[in-house]
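TA notes, week 10

Several of you asked for a full example with nothing omitted. So below is the full record: structure tokens for the whole chain, then the designed sequence directly under it. When grading your own attempts, check the secondary structure regions first.
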């Protein structure tokens, strides 16, 4: 099953790790852009990106998903069966919500259980 994972903070890392451990085909990880952190304002990668790079998974870091045609085209090209969203931090537009072939799942610890089934 081809999966796109969308998440950013430490909270999202265990879910991505589980998908990897369970041998899902994680084709793309989408996360927030690297940001300056702490007093030195050193550019820091999101924890989800660090894990994805550790497993050589492609990473996309759009500033904003909404209106990003390049990102929409990448999703269409991948044709995911499933998109898993955990603490991503952006409202997802219909172009993204309509891209998986089957189902969306967002864990209930992040603002309630959300299942969007596409038929």
């Amino acid at each position: 099953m081809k999966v796109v994972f969308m998440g950013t903070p430490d909270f999202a890392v265990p879910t991505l790790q589980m998908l990897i451990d369970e041998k899902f085909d994680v084709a793309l990880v989408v996360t927030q852009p690297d940001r300056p952190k702490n007093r030195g304002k050193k550019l820091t990668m999101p924890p989800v990106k660090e894990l994805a790079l550790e497993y050589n998974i492609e990473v996309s870091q759009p500033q904003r998903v909404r209106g990003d045609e390049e990102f929409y085209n990448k999703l269409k090209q991948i044709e995911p069966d499933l998109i898993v969203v955990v603490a991503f931090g952006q409202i997802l537009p219909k172009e993204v919500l309509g891209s998986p072939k089957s189902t969306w799942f967002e864990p209930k610890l992040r603002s309630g259980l959300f299942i969007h089934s596409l038929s």
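The chain has four helices and eight strands. Use that as a sanity check on your answer.
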